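Need residues for this backbone.
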C-alpha cells in the first residue's frame, strides 16, 4: 500500500497514453484498409438457396441487440466471436419458419453463453418454429446446461459418442469483499431500506444474510422448476426424473448412459450427423449442405418493413441506469429524449418498452419513469422484461399499461440504498494526512477521508427512506395496488417472473412477441402494422474501436495493480454512483 498513490498516477498516465496511441493506430489502420475493403465487399452478398437449413450456431455471448456488421469489422474481429443479438436470433428463426426455401434448423449450441430468460425467449421461438412442421435437429460435443435447454426442443438430440452433457440445476455464488476492503483500510457505511436489499452485503459481510439466503433459495427453486418442467416436457420425462438425473452429475457420466436415460436420442460423430442431415434434405451423401446463418438471414427479405402510419416501436433499455446523455447503458437524458421522440411521432401507435437492467441511480430511474408516464398518456406502453428488470429496472417499467416477463426473469427488488466510502484507513496506511477548516457544520459532507458522523448518517437515512416511500408510491400507482399491500412484496426482495405474476407485479408470462401482440391489441391495429426498433445502433466499427481502447487501458491498470485490479474497478464503480441507488447485487453469479 506504500505505493498506492504512485500506482494510481501511473495508471492514469498509462490510460491517457493508451487512448492517444490506439486512436492514432486505429486511424492509420482505417485509412490503409479502406481501399482494399471497398474493392471486395460488393461481391459477397448472400443468396438463400433452395433446400437450405438454418445453421443456428450460438457460439458467442447473446445480448439484447447488437449493431449491424460493416465491411471493416471482419478485419478486426477475425479471431474473436462477436456478440449475437437476441433480436437477430429470434428474427432468423421466424424468417426460417415462413421461408419455403428453408426446410429445418440445425442447432449447434456447444459454446452458448446466455441467461435464463434469454434462453427462454429463444426456446419459445423454436417451439413456434416446430408448428410449421419443419424439423429441428441438435448436435454438440459438449452441451452446457443452457445449450441443452435449447437443444431439448429438437426432434432429434445427438451427442458426440465421447461427449459431455451438463445438467446440474441452478446455483448462485455471490462474492464478498469485506475482508479485502479491511486490508486496504476502506470502510463502507451503508444506509438502506429493505430487509432483502442485498446489493450492499458484499461490502459489509463475508456471507449472505439469512434474508438474502431465503430470497435466493426461493428464486432459484422457482426458476429451476420452470426449466425442469420444460426439460421434462420436451424429453417425455417426469420432473422427478430430471431432478434424479441432475443429481447423478451427468457431465461425468459416459455418453451411453445419457442415451439410456433419454437425455439424448443418438450418439454420432459430426460427420455422421451431417450425413443424417443430408438424408432429411434428400441430397447426396457428399453434397454440400445449403445453409444460412443468423447473420445471413438479416439479408433475407420477407415483406417490406418500413415505417407506416401504423407502427409499433420497440424501445430497448439495457444495462445500468445512470445519469448522463450517452447511449452506453441506460442514461437518463438520452433515454428521455428517445421516449419524447416516440411520444411526438404520430406514426408510432404503441411502444414496447424492452427492459433488461439490474437498476442503478434512483434519480435517473425517476426521470425515465416520468417520461414513460407522459408517453403512456399519448399511446399504449407495454413493458417486456428480459433477463432482469429489478430495482431501478422495475422502477422504470412499473407504470406501463401491461408488464410481460419470462417465468425466469429476475424482477422486483423494490428497495433503495446508499453507500458511503471512507478511505481514512487507507490514508493512514500510506502516510497521507488531511486537515481542514470549515464555516458550517456540514461543509465537508461527503469527505471520504473520514467516516460519516451520526448526524450526517441520520439525514442520509431520512433521504433513503423518503426515496423508498416514493419508489413504493410509483409501483403501487403503476400496478393499481394499495401501497400497504404492495409493501408486502417490496423490502428489496427479488422474484421470478412466475412469482411476480402471482403477486401482481407482472401481468403475463411470455417474451417480446407477446408484448408486441398486446401492444397491437391496445392500439386497435389488428394485423396491419410494422415493428421498428429504437434507438438507432452505432456501427460495429464504433462499438469495436472504443472497447479496444478500453482494453489497452485495462491491461495497463492490471499490470500495475495486479491482484488489486478487480477491487479497484469495483470501488471506481461505487465512486461514480449517485447517493441513492436502486439496484441489485453487482454480480449474482447464477449458473
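Answer:
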Amino acid at each position: 500500500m506504500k505505493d498506492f498513490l504512485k500506482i494510481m498516477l501511473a495508471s492514469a498516465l498509462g490510460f491517457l497514453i493508451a487512448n492517444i496511441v490506439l486512436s492514432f493506430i486505429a486511424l492509420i489502420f482505417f485509412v490503409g484498409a479502406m481501399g482494399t475493403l471497398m474493392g471486395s465487399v460488393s461481391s459477397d452478398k448472400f443468396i438463400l438457396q433452395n433446400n437450405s437449413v438454418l445453421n443456428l450456431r450460438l457460439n458467442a455471448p447473446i445480448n439484447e441487440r447488437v449493431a449491424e456488421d460493416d465491411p471493416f469489422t471482419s478485419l478486426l474481429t477475425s479471431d474473436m466471436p462477436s456478440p449475437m443479438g437476441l433480436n437477430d436470433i429470434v428474427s432468423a428463426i421466424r424468417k426460417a419458419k415462413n421461408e419455403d426455401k428453408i426446410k429445418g434448423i440445425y442447432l449447434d449450441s456447444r459454446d452458448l453463453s446466455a441467461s435464463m430468460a434469454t434462453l427462454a425467449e429463444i426456446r419459445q421461438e423454436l417451439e413456434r418454429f416446430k408448428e410449421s412442421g419443419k424439423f429441428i435437429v441438435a448436435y454438440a460435443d459438449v452441451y452446457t446446461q443452457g445449450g441443452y435447454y435449447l437443444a431439448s426442443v429438437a426432434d432429434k438430440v445427438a451427442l458426440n459418442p465421447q461427449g459431455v452433457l451438463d445438467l446440474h440445476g441452478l446455483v448462485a455464488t455471490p462474492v464478498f469483499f469485506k475482508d479485502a476492503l479491511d486490508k486496504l483500510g476502506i470502510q463502507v457505511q451503508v444506509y438502506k431500506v429493505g430487509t432483502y436489499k442485498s446489493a450492499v452485503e458484499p461490502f459489509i459481510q463475508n456471507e449472505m444474510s439469512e434474508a438474502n439466503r431465503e430470497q435466493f433459495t426461493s428464486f432459484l427453486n422457482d426458476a429451476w422448476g420452470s426449466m425442469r418442467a420444460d426439460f421434462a416436457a420436451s424429453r417425455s420425462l417426469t420432473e422427478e426424473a430430471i431432478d434424479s438425473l441432475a443429481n447423478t452429475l451427468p457431465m461425468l457420466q459416459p455418453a451411453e448412459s445419457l442415451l439410456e436415460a433419454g437425455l439424448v436420442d443418438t450418439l454420432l460423430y459430426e460427420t455422421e450427423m451431417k450425413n443424417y442431415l443430408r438424408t432429411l434434405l434428400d441430397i447426396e451423401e457428399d453434397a454440400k449442405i445449403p445453409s444460412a446463418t443468423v447473420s445471413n438471414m438479416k439479408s433475407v427479405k420477407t415483406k417490406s418493413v418500413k415505417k407506416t402510419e401504423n407502427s409499433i416501436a420497440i424501445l430497448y433499455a439495457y444495462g445500468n441506469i445512470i445519469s448522463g446523455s450517452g447511449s452506453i447503458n441506460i442514461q437518463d437524458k438520452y433515454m428521455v429524449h428517445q421516449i419524447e421522440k416516440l411520444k411526438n411521432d404520430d406514426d408510432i401507435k404503441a411502444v414496447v418498452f424492452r427492459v433488461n437492467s439490474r437498476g442503478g441511480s434512483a434519480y435517473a430511474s425517476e426521470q425515465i419513469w416520468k417520461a414513460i408516464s407522459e408517453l403512456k398518456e399519448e399511446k399504449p406502453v407495454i413493458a417486456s422484461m428480459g433477463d432482469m428488470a429489478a430495482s431501478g429496472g422495475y422502477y422504470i417499467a412499473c407504470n406501463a399499461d401491461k408488464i410481460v416477463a419470462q417465468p425466469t426473469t429476475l424482477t422486483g427488488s423494490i428497495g433503495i440504498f446508499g453507500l458511503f466510502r471512507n478511505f481514512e484507513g487507507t490514508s493512514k496506511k500510506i502516510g497521507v494526512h488531511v486537515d481542514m477548516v470549515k464555516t458550517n457544520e456540514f461543509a465537508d459532507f461527503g469527505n471520504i477521508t473520514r467516516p460519516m458522523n451520526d448526524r450526517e448518517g441520520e439525514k442520509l437515512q431520512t433521504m433513503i427512506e423518503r426515496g423508498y416511500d416514493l419508489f413504493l408510491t410509483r409501483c403501487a400507482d403503476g400496478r393499481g395496488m394499495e401501497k400497504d399491500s404492495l409493501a408486502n412484496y417490496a423490502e428489496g426482495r427479488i422474484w421470478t417472473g412466475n412469482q411476480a405474476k402471482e403477486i401482481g407485479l407482472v401481468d403475463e408470462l411470455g417474451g417480446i412477441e407477446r408484448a408486441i401482440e398486446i401492444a397491437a391489441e391496445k392500439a386497435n391495429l389488428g394485423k396491419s402494422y410494422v415493428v421498428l426498433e429504437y434507438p438507432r445502433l452505432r456501427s460495429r466499427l464504433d462499438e469495436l474501436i472504443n472497447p479496444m481502447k478500453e482494453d489497452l487501458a485495462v491491461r495497463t491498470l492490471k499490470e500495475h495493480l495486479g491482484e488489486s485490479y478487480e477491487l479497484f474497478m469495483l470501488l471506481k464503480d461505487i465512486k461514480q454512483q449517485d447517493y441513492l441507488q436502486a439496484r441489485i447485487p453487482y454480480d449474482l453469479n447464477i449458473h
